[in-house]
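User: Predict the full complex structure for these chains.
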Amino acid sequence: METFIMKELFEGANFICCPVNRFKSTRITVRFALKMNPDTVSAFAALPGLIRYTSKHYPETLAMERKLASLYGAGFSAVSAKMGDLQVLSFTVNTIADKFAFEGERISEDCLSFLLDCIFEPDLDENGCFKAENIAREKRLMIEDIKTSQSDKMAYSLNRFNELFYEGEGAGVLSTGTEQQVEMLTAVQITDAWHAMLESATVYVCTVGDLDTQAVADVIRKRFAGINRQWVKAENNPHTPHKQLVKAHETQPLEQCKLTMGFCVGSEDEAALRVMNAVFGRSEMSRLSKVVREKMSLCYYCSSAYGPKKKVMIVYSGVESENREKTVQAVLEQLKEIQNGNFSDEEMNIAKRKMKDSYRSSLDMPADLAQWYLQQMMNENVKTVEQYIDEAQAVTRERIIACAKTITPDCVYTLGEEV
Amino acid sequence: MIKEIKNELLNEKYYEIEHSSGLKVFVFPKAEYQSNFAIIGVPFGSADNRFITAQGKTVTLPDGTAHFLEHKLFESEEKDAFEKFAATGARANAYTSFDRTCYLFSCAENFYQNLTSLLEFVSDAYFTDKTVAKEQGIIGQEIKMYRDNPEWQATMGLLSMLYENSGAGVDIAGSVESIARITPDILYSVYENFYVPQNMVLCVCGNVSPEKVIAVCDSCMKPAETRVANSTPFADPQVPSTPKKVKEMPVSMPVFAFGYKETRTGLVPLKERMETVLLNQILIGTMSPLYDRLMCEGYIGEDFSSEYFTGRLYAAVLFTGSSEHAETIKAEFEKEVQRVRCEGIDPQLFDCVIKDMYGTMIKGFNSVEDIASDMLDSYMGGFHYFEELELFKTITPADLEKLLQTKYNVKQSALSLVVPIQQKG
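Assistant: Here is the predicted structure of the two-chain assembly.
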């Protein structure tokens, strides 16, 4: 049984520690969650890059990179991501466990201090704002990133789908905003975003490895003691269905057409929905893979994902342009089959076994373990892997049918050649 | 025969086994883990486009044959492999690279049952005209998906210049036209000449015991009488005849790949592999003055990366990224090589990259997948798994300076660009 320790650091801030010693490394993540807002998304999205490459103590990127190398090649990642209607900023440092240091250094303590220094003491100018030259560089990198994601047709089609499907919702906002928004960002806007992150975001901290839990909690509390916290709880809202099915096609000269379908989910039976998704499209044994991909040879890939926070299910597929309408019909047909109970006990049992195996395996990677507990904290109902497994095992075919019946198509987006 | 190999620093050990069938087996127990990973590999990849059988017959293969075989092998007369693994909860996969083909699975439960399935699938081939024809459609889709990927297209553009004739310059999956020429007979000829136990290696990591792994091998792997064929790919010219290629695609940002081919036969020794990675870091890694300058001046982005592309049949240093200034980046890199050749390596920077490499190596012992895959890579690369940890301590700045004199030969370089589609008229 996996053990973890959970503490409330202060209002709006939770900490989970996984004190496992089977790994050769330690890992510390500090995460901030805020409501996704189209007006401020770019300012918040600029923060990870600004915090990642310079700080008050390391105003030159080169010096910061060499500091990380001196911490035995410590990995430092700073990312802005969209999770449903939330904008989530995560800062993670991972390095080798202290026992592997050449001269007995306390690397994990140094890493924690380094990480908190970067978050709380960025490289600001005499007016207390992020420096112009650093902002200029970050804007360039963000714009290049936006352009790259336009070239990556899977990413591009998903962004366009999100805009259509989640129109008017936080989840529909581009995760770094538009090129124009980034271009227009000012030092004051970005600095305000940094203050808002520290003062009002929900904070999640997770550590994995052989670390002194109490000491970590004390150090983090101390850093926040100087912040005027005014916590604003940010929450996801279920997707609002469109009045009628939204269908859109965008023409681009592609070899393979990208098809994305969005469904609304009405059921609250989360365990049943997870199993239903596994039967429907989560694995190579699912209906979408076995029937739509293999038996009907309609596409190279076809899979589904269940989004519990937004109460949605999304289907992703890569198809020949002339097959796209046939594929849409085939996906809907398979959903209907499950709604009508036309699936075997064996399919259900395989889905459960695969879920169980995959949950258990996730315990053996520091990043996956941290991700599990960060997600659990965000769910506000922390469960262990074993609890998830037990819940899935208890799901019956009746529950799968019942939850499948609440799933309705809401949006179909295709990108590719004109037929 | 079982040999135990220990490492005191890590407090870990693995077992090296010569199985009676000829199969080489490595087992790395991780008793405190729940997950398990197994991978079996054959040193036959997409670059192996021609071979001579033990009977002296020369066989030339359509591009994409190794990859096609990989797709078809995970299928028996009754069932496909993914189905069989998935029924136990396991996740199976397979991949083909330029110099090898590997089949793998991971699971938390039913490990030995899955290991039996893995060995049974690679020990038996089943190809018919019907199943080959069906796969041509599926792989055709896969090829099309990669044709839309600008990074892959830039890299393949580069490799096609560095390796004009050998298979290392051709897309691993081949083309729609080349795979149309693949028949069951061609697949059987590769299978029978290369997929024999004495030419394969199995690597396992997880909550497993070497004795039980051997017992599974005993029941599935029998010695083969076939002698392994000799891979003899077509030779490439030393100097690429085309130094630059440009391809238009629907991209918003140009993507580039440039590289420096090395002329050599056989595997690159481990020390040189490690030294080349260190040199890449010193010259244009994130801790280098050149990277810092190119980043500050807006020439490179966060996706810039380097790779020592090395295998049985090829060795080249590759750089990839997206930028509108690829030619400047290449020129500046070559100037930096000259500067460091003259001025020598900054000792402080050397210490940084060594510590960085050590940390990366230690972290590689966290995951059962990384451990088993790295054991396979070590074996195919001709070195022992723990050897890297020992060897890195012996590398000096003088070693790197000596190697630098012969690396990054500009005459053997090429540049590949993927640029936005130009509006006509």
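The first helix of chain B runs from residue 65 to 73.
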